[in-house]
Amino acid sequence: MALLLIMTALMAQVESTPCTSTFFSALVQLIPCRSAVAPFSPIPPTDSCCNALKALGQPCLCVLVNGPPIAGVDRSMASQLPDKCTTDFEPCEII
After folding, report:
1. Residue 89 and residue 56: Cα distance in Å, rounded?
2. What is the gyration radius of the CA atoms in the chain, in angstroms?
3. For the whole prediction, is pTM greater than 0.85?
4. What is the total count of domains within the chain?
């Protein structure tokens, strides 16, 4: 029952966002950010990472942050990218 509620909430989030990328293509777009979102990484995002983030957009970042686990990616660090890149994104609702 709890799993059904979680899946329903996740689907509602995905349906309410205008992200036009698939999960995989959004992930590929953020490859320049991999060193900045690795667990315990002290490396700040590069200009190419920030440009990729801005091109991807907030809705797709939220899809990634709330999607299935991604090996080598700290979700908390990924959700901090907009602040570190000084983009004007609303914070993602973490499910």
Report:
1. 11
2. 13
3. no
4. 1
| CATH number of the domain bearing residue 11 | 1.10.110.10
Question: Mind listing the pLDDT tens digit for each residue in 2-48?
Answer: 433 344 444 444 445 589 999 999 999 999 999 999 999 999 999 99
Position 89 in a domain: no
Is residue 95 a part of any domain in this protein? no
Long-range CB pairs of 36-40 (<8 Å, 24+ gap) are 36/77, 36/81, 36/84, 37/73, 37/74, 37/77, 37/78, 37/81, 38/72, 38/73, 38/74, 38/77, 39/72, 39/73, 39/74, 39/77, 40/74
Per residue in 40-52, pLDDT (tens digit) is 999 999 999 999 9
Nearest to 63 by CA among 39, 42, 41, 89: 89
In a domain, 28, yes or no: yes
User: For residue 94, what is the enclosing H or E element?
Assistant: none
Supply the pLDDT for residue 83: 95
